[in-house]
């Protein structure tokens, strides 16, 4: 249509806008990234120094050029002196010409502080991408006076249209197109599989934790029988908006994964991949983290999904929308994984106490580098690499040196007693046992730990999983013959707090109370949580 001289200018502009329109999926991904960014106003925006405008910046994108390289893409306007330069050059040579940053550094060397730049092509009446090169910010920022700062250079934001991708859109594109095999399949010999149950799920931008969770559930026979939905009854019985019906969207994804509809033969050059966008939207609705574009923990999402499905499945069982399970009591999806854990506390005098934790669905498996069978070799290899100045790049062909930790060693640590635990104001040892053996047992390999600075770190290791697993030695026995029970603590009555008052923390608990208080909890909340969890600070932090 652009070559037709008879078309009115307004029609041409509408056609151009349609061509540039990103679509609802891309727009939602960008909004998620924008929400995750939490941009703050730049402290340099108020009172920003702007030189006298000896020239005006053309509103026509065709006139924009990097004043250093002549590039016409990825251009940034310095709001202080009107200089137009290219965006940052990345470590691999990609990106822009680096003209805007080079100009900032040159001016700074002269004593001029011109930190704020705006990306040309993203300016609209609603705002634009603004970046601060100042060392104490060095990030995307907000400029509350952006319209005035742009007007200084002759740009009327009310007349500007978006012609380039924002940084949020570029982030989404990167997550969708990045070749993750560079970091998770290096050096591995892979064999292609196809057919029902072997379909891949598309990365929707930091959505690998969602995909991993869905693929896990799709391998469970009871889940397959419930959500394969071959006759479409589950989707057709949705009341109201199908797009917001959790069961219908779960069935939609499961049916696509488990049916032969999308299972292309291996000889076909293009294999199908599923994009569970609607399912992710309804499963994450209202959750501040899972509805964002940030990376998340798969176990946390799985437990969240269990809660979402359980709220939808229970009324569906009662209404007959979901099958009851062949005459057996209906079990929710979460119920297939549910287990109860027994905590046994033993004080120095030999007295014991038992506490049962119900409603658990994940057994956490401790992992320690001390149990690695190749610890000496891995540490030597890493030291040699550090001495040689080698940085392990993501595209390196050499696989990283990983600790190999036997599964049995992790199981031994789970079964062993944990010393130094505070329970009922007394120091004791604690062991964990399984009250029941669930239909399916979920194990979480705890590779994250807190270093000496209380910062989370990840242990890079391999823990080979056995084909058969015997957990009989972890079965709970309850109070045994000859054991003496630890007396219950007396209820606190003084202090005017009434029967529900929380007693002050003992001297041994003061450090734990202080740690929880530093996280933002009140002293009363910290003491109550420590009391309820037997003095375990990590569980108390989760419980509060």
Notable characteristics:
17 strands; alpha+beta; 5-stranded antiparallel β-sheet; 17 helices; 544 residues; 4-stranded antiparallel β-sheet
What does this structure look like?
This protein is of the alpha+beta class and 544 residues long. The chain contains 17 helices and 17 strands. The chain has helices at 9-20, 24-37, 99-109, 146-151, 167-177, 181-184, 208-218, 221-227, 233-236, 246-258, 277-283, 298-318, 375-387, 407-415, 510-518, 523-532, 537-543; strands at 75-78, 84-86, 116-119, 130-132, 139-141, 200-201, 273-274, 339-347, 352-360, 363-366, 403-404, 418-423, 426-434, 443-446, 448-450, 456-458, 461-462. A five-stranded antiparallel sheet has the order 2-1-3-4-5, covered by helices on one side. Helix 2 (24-37) packs across helix 5 (167-177), helix 7 crosses helix 12 and helix 15 (510-518) packs across helix 16 (523-532). The longest helix is centred in the middle third of the chain and has 21 residues, at 298-318. The N and C termini lie far apart (61 Å).
Tell me the helix content: 25-40%
Which stretches are poorly predicted, pLDDT < 50 over at least 5 residues? 390-396, 494-508
What percentage of amino acids are in beta strands? 5-15%
Main sheet overview: 5 strands, antiparallel
* Mean of pLDDT: 82
**Structural class designation:** alpha+beta
**Rounded to an integer, what's the Rg over CA atoms?**
30 Å
What form results from the Cα inertia axes? globular
* Strand order in the largest sheet: 2-1-3-4-5
Number of strands: 17
Instruction: Output the number of helix runs.
Output: 17
Cα distance spanning the termini = 61 Å
